[in-house]
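@channel sequence for tomorrow's demo:
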Amino acid sequence: MTVVRTWVLPVLRIMIWAVIAVALVVLAFRGSGDTGPAGATSAPGVDLGSPSIPVARGTVTNTVSVQGAIAADPAVPVKATAAGTVSRLHVGAGAPVAAGDKLLDVRYEEERDPVVGTDAEGNPTSTPRDPLVKVVTVTAPAAGRLATLDVLKDQVVAVGDAVGTISPGTLSVTASLSQADQFRLLSPPSTAEVTVTGGPAPFTCTGLTLGAPPGEGDQADAGVDPMTGMPIAATTTARCAVPAGVTVFAGMAATVAIQAGEVADALVLPVTAVQGSVQNGMVWVPGADGAPEERPVTLGLTDGQQVEITGGLTEGESVLEFVPVPDDAAADPHGMGGPYG
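structure tokens (generated this afternoon):
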């Protein structure tokens, strides 16, 4: 037993470890991708580059959907159209009025030239005349309710003075648009589809306009940037009129869907393959030497997932599925200078 423990067992351990080492070496050489003695090759390595995709045909529906709210239309100011004294009030605050209805009269005097002539002896004379009294009636500039009347009888007013306001009693749908939304609405339609949370069935609002918010109170955030987590400031507001007969109230939340075009059987690519999203862009195609090559393209509609290619590529051509990221951009995960920056 002493001989077995002293010589046999250590020798067996050495032989086992030697067999394991030889097996590892063989596996390493076989997995290197070299051609073996029988001409067989190992599986190819994993390609970590951007895959290529063909330019295909599809339908692009450019529908911008944003969150908004029902808002009362602003009051219309009533202004004095003459300088003088308020001589009569035709209606009081709170009264319903139609466009053109009489609201108040402004009395003023207009000086007249004296009457000139000659007396019996032929001397020139000048006889003053009383001023000409005129009355100008201020009418309602819009239909609605006379919300305020800010003048009294016999009060002196000047041209342009605010003498009251008319509440039209109508409602509109307003929604803040981000910069990306505005680029997708370069040619906006005149209508939008509105869905009011917990309200009536979806309806079409008319007279859609895009413009700067009327006041700081409407400068609502237009969402959150997914890259930075910071709020996206709204730079413009979409506004359209709620049609008569639709029962909604100011302050209700609403979803506004604006369809700004649709194209069928168009050349399309995913937005991940295109640098740029409006009018002009850049794609990368596999070059003859395998290196990606830039190619300018012209762009049409986009739905946020795919974009229409109107020039620069033909159907079936291959492009990189993802815009190449510069090495320095990849080194800084918090940088904002990537291909979309």
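heads up for whoever presents: Confidence is low (pLDDT under 50) at residues 31-48, 216-222, 328-341.
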